[in-house]
């Protein structure tokens, strides 16, 4: 009886020992896999990496095997020592589902796998092109979106400023969306000015910028406008202009130039103004009455001379100018006189001659001669005079303004 009881006790002790060995030793093929399967398996995106972490409930293992699946790819990332409970995946594929699977191993035994999935999204990656086709006020700018970071690029473009590190809070030009190259022409830039540029891209992960580039616009001719002519008289007028931009270089001369033919330049008559940006006034003198003039404002910098738009004006005509010739060939009833029309007053002479009277200041209401319509000297014959009588004579000329008279001369017949 005692022997039988001892045998039963020995069998129970052996069974108990096997059960303890099975539950505590992962190297035992009969040890349940679930009790040494990694737990609390997590994947967290950190910047452009994925941090994997887990817990191992049983320290009596050989290590871990970690596998990543992206699409049909199944690379083994690493065999990890027993003490490792985390790994940084430094090369995740943005915008695609990553499946991570971890198993613990002990000799030839493996635990159940634990899996976790994550779809990492990154900011875009991009670069900025160097500007091309640079002029005084324009240039072509752009960049390329190399990767959208797994999230759609909803806006992209160029930002610029007069200082380094421009952002979208500075000047910006949106140029579409998505990945790939893009470009556009910037306008209304200031001549001879240094600008800083960066491409930008926006997706759900935020706004990122490409490398910074610089470019300087060219010096151009000054830009200006010509002021309308005012205070127009027969020989004077008032003009001027507005210097809008110096073209990126100091204005060394400005003013207005004018001529009686279209397209005046500084090779024609000119009047100097200011060298500062802004408006200036010029006074035209020595003009001819009844004459059309063409006027442009001008400004000169180191590159050359720029001109404003052309304006025109016409001085008003005035009475003709002339002199009376001294009387000659005086007889009892006849004499010879005449005059010299030195200016038609800016209007065509319609009639000219001399008029006379026995009273001072004769007019065309008195006896008169009718001569030509040209400027210059003319001769007139006085007839039907009375002997031994004093006569007063004036040359006259008529244009559209009226009739003008020369100085009076007198003579006495024989």
Computed structural class: mainly beta
Discrete helix count = 1
Give the full name of the CATH homologous superfamily of the largest domain. Answer: Immunoglobulins
Low-confidence stretches: 1-22
Q: What CATH architecture of the largest domain would you give?
A: Sandwich
What is the CATH level 1 assignment of the largest domain? Answer: Mainly Beta
Strand fraction equals over 45%
Main β-sheet: number of strands, strand sense, barrel status?
5 strands, antiparallel
Mean pLDDT rating: 91
Helix content: under 10%
Tell me about this structure.
The protein is mainly beta and 414 residues long. The protein folds into four domains: 33-118, Immunoglobulin-like, CATH 2.60.40; 125-216, Immunoglobulin-like; 223-314, Immunoglobulins (Immunoglobulin-like), CATH 2.60.40.10; 321-412, Immunoglobulin-like, CATH 2.60.40. 6% of the residues lie in helices and 46% in strands. The chain is built from one helix and 30 strands. The strands form eight sheets. Strands 3, 4, 6, 7 and 8 form a five-stranded antiparallel beta sheet that branches. Strands 18, 19, 21, 22 and 23 form a five-stranded antiparallel beta sheet that branches. A hairpin with a 4-residue loop joins strand 21 and strand 22. It is rod-shaped. The termini are far apart.
Short description:
The chain is mainly β and 414 residues long. The protein contains one helix and 30 strands.
